[in-house]
Amino acid sequence: MMPRPLARTAASRTVPAMPAFAALARPASGRLLSIDALRGLAILIMLMDHVRDMFFLHVPVADPMDVAATSPALFFSRLLAHLCAPVFIWLAGVSAWLYGNAGHDRRAVSGFLLKRGLFLVLLELTLVGFAWTWRLPPQVIYLQVIWAIGLSMVALAALLWLPRAALVALGLALVAGHNLLSPLHFPIDSAWHVPWAILHDRTWLEVAGGLRVRTSYPVLPWIGVIALGYAAGPWFATAMPDRARQLRLAGCGLAALSGFAWLRAFNGYGQEQKWLPGADALHTAMSFLNVTKYPPSLLFLLLTLGTGCLLLVWLERAQGGRLARRLAVFGAVPMFFYLLHLYVLQALYQLCVHRWGLNQGRVFGFGQVWQLWLVAAMLALALWPAVRWFAALKAIRRNWRWLKYF
Predict the structure, then answer these.
(1) Could you give the number of structural domains in the chain?
(2) Which of 81, 165, 311, 340 has its CA 20 to 30 A from that of 376?
(3) pLDDT tens digit string along 106-138?
(4) What separation in angstroms does the CA of 8 have from each of 105, 268, 326?
(5) Sheet holding 204-206: strands in order across?
(6) Residues 143-172: tens digit of each pLDDT
(7) Residue 116: inside a domain, yes or no?
């Protein structure tokens, strides 16, 4: 779900004799470590959610989630995972600005975003898709988060030529205004059916040969998110004082969360499904926090991006700690981790089926939510050596251009 940050990060100047992790743990600045650390935190949350996708299919979580039928443990696990996509895409915009600020002109940034975006789209249609379906040739293709990030990068390659004020205005308009477009649909025989399905209408598309395509991540609001990330890039410039950046991030985070709370309290604009009082305070809170991800509603983005801004402030202030440094290593190689963990999960699932059979109807699955968290923690530890090795390789082999795509 995650592009490699385009910014120069921790180990851009590594002494080969230095232990790999020591080099990675000392970035050029706390502002850059915090970016990788937040991405790393989102990656580990994503890992848990993908364990759920692989081993909890017998307990489906609808979108929006059915509060009445979903256990609190499963609900809040899924709610936490909502943080991932907004963080990845917003930070992709920030990193694009930092890439340009490191000495690349706007044309170079635009060209890199275009190539990187198309590369991610290709990955979604090939290696990522196969990791999920395990079928060749595929019968179904799910256009998910890697697809959305890729198309958002392609869009940003064109939009970054706009003045910053215009880019902010466009980003806010897409994030805050796209809910007005929800009633708009086009019939199958319309020339707008496929483009609109990709942009804003989550649906199925029928392709030749019986192949079906699911537009799981409509990209229009995500283009707004990456545009706002790019516009926030100057906050991370070297000349920006740390306190000033942190105050701006904290202000945006608190404003977004306050806007969420106010609009949600009155069941106002920005979320089609209304909240209702539940049987108890816990279920009332679940209903209140139940926001739509596909496509992401305004309230979904206010809640997740607001939380992400506050986490970024916390991680920047904690950048000297061991946790932040470990998270930054995961965040330094997001595409590598994404592909690695999908194939490890698929292999683990197939081994479980071979050993214990289909114990939950037509699938193999765990019985309790805590087991998902346990497996995710064990996988994070098991994959750590490979992640650290690849991050060190990227740090040392700066001349291997293909590495920057991972």
Answers:
(1) 1
(2) 311
(3) 999 999 999 999 999 999 999 999 999 999 889
(4) 15, 42, 18
(5) 140-142, 212-214, 204-206
(6) 999 999 999 999 999 999 999 999 999 999
(7) yes
